Amino acid sequence: MSEAQTFDILVAGGGMIGSALALGLSRQGWHVGLVEGSGHESLVEAPDSATTVADFEPRVSAISVASQQLLEQLGVWSEVTAGRHCPYQTMTVWDGDGTGRIQFEAAELQARALGTIVENRSIVRSLFRALEQSPVELIDGARITGCKRLSGTYTVELEGGRSLSAGLLVGCDGANSRLRHWVGLPTREWDYDQQAIVCTVKTSQSHRFTAWQRFSTTGPLAFLPLLPESGDEHFCSIVWSQDTGEARRLMALDDTDFAAELERAIERELGSVESISGRFAFPLRQRHAKDYIAPGFALVGDAAHTIHPLAGQGANLGYGDVSGTFKRLPRHEFDEVCKIF
Predict the structure, then answer these.
(1) Which of 8, 34, 140, 234 is deepest in the core (most CB within 10 A)?
(2) What domains are there in the chain, each with its CATH number?
(3) Is the pLDDT score of 328 beyond 70?
C-alpha cells in the first residue's frame, strides 16, 4: 500500500451536510479532503426544467432561515435560488381527528418567508460547484473500506488501495454510518413502526405558498409547496408518515385510488390531486449516537442523529452541526481541539 496522503481534516460523506462542512472548513484555512463514494459529475450539470410531477426530485428539504444564512455565508445560496425553489410564507397544522388548528405567518415575524422548499440535489449541486473552485481535495467515487487510528492520526483505506490520513476525521456518511460503527460509537435507537411515503403531486388548487400538515392517529401528512420555472403554484412534495401496515396498503394502491386517499387525508385543502409521480417508501427509525466525538473523530448530520420527518428538521439539524463545528475549530487551537475530539 502506498504512503497515505495527509490532511488536516478529512470529511467522509459528500451529501448536503458533508460538502457544506468541507467547504466551510477549507475557507478557514484548513487542508481538507472530502471523500464521497458516489460520483457527482452529473450534479454539476444544469437541471432540466420541471413541467410534470416526474421532473422533481422526490427528496426535498425545508431549509430554515438559519440554514439559509449558513449557505449564504458559504456563497452558494444565490445559486440555489437561481434554480427551482419555493419560499413559503405560511404554515398550517391541524388535527384531523379533532378541532385543533394553528397557523404561522411570516408577516407576523416581519420575515419574507418561514423557510424555503428546495430539492436536495439542487443544494448538493451548488455546493459541489463551489467545491470545484475551492482548495478542498475531492476524492469522488471512492468507497472507504476501513479506518484505524495510530499515533494520534486516523488513516482510512479506500477501494483500490489508496490511503488517506488526517488529524481529525469527520463522519458525515449518513444514518447507517460505517465510520461510526468502526470507531465504536454506540447509538440509542428505536423503530417508529412507521414508513414515510414520498412523491410529487399536482393539485387543482394553488398551494398558496403554504406548508400544510395534518395529523391523524396513524401519522402526519405534509404537503410542501414546490415552484417550477413556469411559476405554476400547483405542485407539492408530500411526506406521508403512516403505521407500517397502513403504509403498505397505500403503496399497493393504483394512482387513482392513492389520489383519492390523499384528497381525503388532506381534507381537500388543495382541491383534487390531478397527477402523482412515482412513489417511494422508507422505514422510519430514530437513531442518536450516545457520543458525537471520540479521540480524533467527530460525527455530524444524520451520522450523529436521525429523527422523524414530521417537523422537516433533519437537514437543518445537520446545518446546525456545521455552524457549531465552525465555531469550535479556530485555526490556532487545532492541536488542542484534536486532543479533545
Answers:
(1) 34
(2) 5-42+54-340 (3.50.50.60)
(3) no
